[in-house]
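Work Package 4 report. The design task specified in the project plan requires that, given a folded chain encoded as structure tokens, an amino acid be chosen for each position. We show below one input record used in the internal validation round.
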């Protein structure tokens, strides 16, 4: 069955790129509502923004949604938490242009969702079953979707900084794998890129406590990495959040090689441009039980691998 939160949850923080303080409330919603954002600081119908692949607009280093003059950026960690906790319907009220970065991961959102609990709704879960391979490339980066019985994410990255280097990981995302293995992995960047990002008006809210900053073989953020492969885990977290903009859970294998937000969105656009590449299916209870957010509990968050 579809789900929503039992009651509203409010988060406060700053935007990673804008540096602006923001207050955000995730509210329960009815069956078939989906995920929507509402800018409470903007009047009129444009204030509502769908969390959907075709509302994504061009941006650097994050996923940004827009509807006319209303925009909301850096939605990927929150979307990953919603998908990873199995929340299908929610209205997200936000009084600024960017989702708060919190600690740079999805963990604060996941902790709050699991503590509050979910309410089951009287509507079945529908999913997008991948029927044919779809792939997009840009230079040496590629992203693809291929048929599989459930969602799998396979990611590979390569950075010159020895603190990251080459990393690869593959996960079957069923039954809380996101919560246990990916949700606490933080965004990361190279120290050499920080000045350039800030000169371009980005990363204005970034600190050593809400992003992992590396320089060569050194990790500058206190405490170092939470996992030896935290960087690739975070890229997988981002991928789940960006794939959640498909509007329904995906049954298929996603593979990313040096892929980022823009390429994953291009992949969704390519998928929906090919009607024979997917089918919207209604899941049986047994099939729905294998989705990323089904059957998880607070103990899963404490069991991070």
């Amino acid at each position: 069955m579809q789900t929503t939160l039992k009651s509203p949850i409010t988060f406060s923080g700053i935007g990673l790129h804008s540096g602006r303080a923001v207050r955000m409330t995730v509210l329960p919603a009815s069956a078939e509502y989906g995920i929507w954002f509402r800018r409470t600081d903007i009047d009129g119908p444009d204030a509502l923004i769908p969390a959907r692949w075709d509302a994504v607009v061009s941006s650097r280093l994050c996923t940004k949604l827009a509807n006319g003059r209303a925009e909301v950026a850096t939605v990927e960690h929150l979307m990953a938490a919603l998908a990873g906790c199995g929340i299908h319907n929610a209205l997200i009220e936000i009084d600024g242009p960017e989702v708060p970065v919190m600690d740079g991961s999805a963990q604060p959102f996941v902790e709050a969702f699991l503590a509050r609990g979910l309410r089951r709704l009287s509507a079945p879960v529908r999913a997008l079953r991948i029927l044919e391979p779809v792939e997009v490339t840009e230079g040496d980066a590629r992203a693809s979707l291929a048929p599989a019985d459930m969602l799998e994410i396979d990611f590979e990255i390569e950075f010159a900084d020895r603190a990251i280097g080459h990393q690869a990981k593959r996960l079957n995302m069923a039954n809380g794998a996101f919560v246990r293995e990916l949700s606490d992995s933080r965004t990361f960047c190279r120290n050499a890129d920080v000045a350039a990002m800030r000169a371009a008006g980005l990363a204005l809210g970034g600190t050593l406590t809400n992003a992992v900053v590396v320089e060569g073989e050194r990790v500058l953020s206190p405490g170092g990495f939470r996992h030896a492969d935290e960087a690739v885990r975070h890229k997988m977290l981002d991928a789940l959040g960006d794939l959640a903009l498909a509007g329904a859970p995906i049954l298929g294998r996603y593979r990313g090689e040096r892929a980022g937000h823009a390429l994953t969105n291009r992949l969704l656009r390519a998928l929906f441009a090919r009607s024979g590449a997917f089918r919207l299916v209604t899941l049986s209870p047994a099939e729905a039980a294998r989705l990323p957010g089904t059957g998880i509990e607070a103990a899963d968050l404490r069991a991070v691998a």
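The helical segments are 76-84, 107-116, 177-182, 191-199, 230-243, 261-272, 285-288, 298-302. Validation will be extended to a larger panel in the next phase.
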